[in-house]
UniProtKB/TrEMBL annotation:
Cytoplasm is among the record's keywords: no
Domain Disease resistance R13L4/SHOC-2-like LRR residues, every copy: 3-106, 170-281
Entry-linked InterPro entries: LRR_dom_sf (IPR032675), LRR_R13L4/SHOC2-like (IPR055414)
Source taxon at top rank: Eukaryota
Cleaved signal peptide residues: none
Protein's UniProt name: Putative NB-ARC domain-containing protein
Species assigned in the record: Oryza sativa subsp. indica
Keywords: Repeat
Length: 284
């Protein structure tokens, strides 16, 4: 097992597929592996030489633990098509990361968000039962099931605020503050920035980005978004989405210096007229 450098799985997961004895493995590709759950990932966080990790399409994965920060050699993380709503704070320790693919990509955006009262009621139910629903929802033997700390972090720091603010309706996954420390990032998509401006300020500092996808753009964070995009001169691909009303209306007009090398622009959400600066993009 110690000689294995790359492992790709197809079909149904079995616990013996991954072992901590695979000390020098570089690539793990579990795309669309059925039956893969949270506790099955225990051994992965011990594979310190791992450079490529794909859990794409593993629909039973809805949380990544802080132990993700152990993978200091990781260059590519792909969790598209999972139900992971937020990356752990330890992601900012992975200074060699170049490609982060996250979120559940879809061409559909919600036309309306739930009322504030309904969101508070749902969030209140979650808070009242604390981590219990989460522990029920993630299978595994009691000694390997979700830790209390990870459960609390997810329920109280991710699920509860996302329900209250309505950002759970947005496509994309939330990332922690400090993502600017990942200076080698080439690709970052799709990030849910609907909860505030801090992450957009971080993205502004990632001047090496070539591909970016953001969700949750609105009038409150519109200025931070404009400043971020204007600072990303190497950007070649940009995807922007916003759920509910007014959607993208009035959120794109004030970008003073759009990336000159932009070749792909995808807009999802309510939008009446295209911003004027698009006409000046020669490579689009």
């Amino acid at each position: 097992l110690s000689q294995i450098r790359s492992l790709s799985l197809f079909g149904h997961w079995e616990p013996f597929f991954v072992s901590s004895k695979m000390k020098f493995i570089r690539v793990l590709d579990f795309e669309r592996t059925r039956g893969l759950k949270y506790h099955h990932l225990d051994q992965i966080w011990k594979l310190f030489h791992l450079k490529f990790l794909s859990l794409r399409g593993c629909i039973d994965i809805d949380l990544l633990p802080d132990l993700l920060g152990n993978l200091r050699q990781l260059q590519m993380l792909d969790i598209r098509g999972t139900y992971v709503k937020a990356l752990p704070k330890t992601i900012i320790k992975l200074k060699k990361l170049q490609y982060i693919h996250i979120g559940r990509k879809t061409d559909y955006v919600w036309e309306e968000k739930d009322s504030l009262m309904k969101r508070y009621c749902v969030a209140g139910c979650l808070c009242a039962t604390c981590c219990l629903p989460l522990l029920w929802g993630i299978d595994g033997p009691p000694h390997k099931a979700l830790t209390r700390r990870d459960a609390w972090t997810f329920a109280c720091c991710v699920k509860f605020p996302s329900l209250v603010t309505g950002v759970h309706k947005e496509n994309g996954t939330m990332v922690p503050k400090g993502i600017r420390k990942l200076k080698d990032l080439h690709t970052l998509r799709d990030v849910n920035v609907g909860s505030g401006n801090a992450v957009l300020r971080d993205i502004r500092m990632l001047t090496g980005l070539h591909k970016l996808g953001v969700a949750g753009i609105n009038k409150k964070n519109g200025r931070a978004f404009h400043l971020a995009i204007s600072n990303l001169s190497k950007l070649e691909s940009l995807s922007v989405s916003s759920a509910g009303m007014p959607g993208l209306c009035g959120c794109l007009d004030d970008i003073s210096s759009p990336p000159e090398n932009l070749q792909s622009l995808k807009l999802y959400g309510n939008l009446i007229t295209l911003p004027g600066w698009i006409k000046g993009l020669q490579h689009l």
